[in-house]
Design goal:
Layout (H helix, E strand, L loop, with lengths): L1 H34 L3 E7 L9 E6 L3 H19 L5 E3 L6 E5 L3 E6 L1 H7 L1 H4 L4 E3 L6
Parallel strand pairs: 2-5
Antiparallel strand pairs: 1-2, 1-6, 3-4, 4-5
């Protein structure tokens, strides 16, 4: 019986570490986007409402060039600070909606028109909105 409780507490510790790791990655991505003047940065904790990821990071870029620059900054900062690379990158050629998929964190960088049209915040409105105060 003691083994069961020990295993359960170990599992809880591992889950908490994964959640902290996901949170740190999401915040790191948001900070990198802020450094590149990304707009309206929103972090959503989606772990309780979706199996896709623990966090979504939504960012507005105001031109295709800025969308790509934000994505490059996010990749560089996440690699340096979290030792992670995206599992998948979508939309790089178009530069209107770029997605960086880290597995537990998905970063969406969109032009204003796409962000308004797809309205991911409303679609995931039942997710936890995480406070992110830009440092600049």
């Amino acid at each position: 019986m003691a083994e069961f409780f020990q295993s359960s507490s170990t599992l809880m510790t591992v889950n908490q570490e994964n959640k902290n790791s996901s949170y740190n990655l999401a915040v790191t991505a948001a900070q990198a986007a802020d450094d590149r003047k990304g707009g309206d940065i929103v972090l959503l904790g989606v772990a309780e409402v979706s199996y896709l990821a623990d966090y979504f990071v939504m960012i507005t870029g105001f031109s295709k060039v800025q969308v790509r620059a934000i994505a490059q900054a996010v990749q560089a900062k996440v690699e340096t600070e979290c030792q992670r690379q995206p599992l998948r990158i979508e939309g790089q050629a178009e530069g209107i909606w770029l997605l960086l998929d880290y597995g537990d964190v998905i970063v969406h960088i969109l032009l204003p028109q796409e962000r308004e049209f797809y309205d991911l915040e409303a679609f995931w409105g039942h997710a936890e909105r995480v406070n992110f105060a830009a440092l600049s």
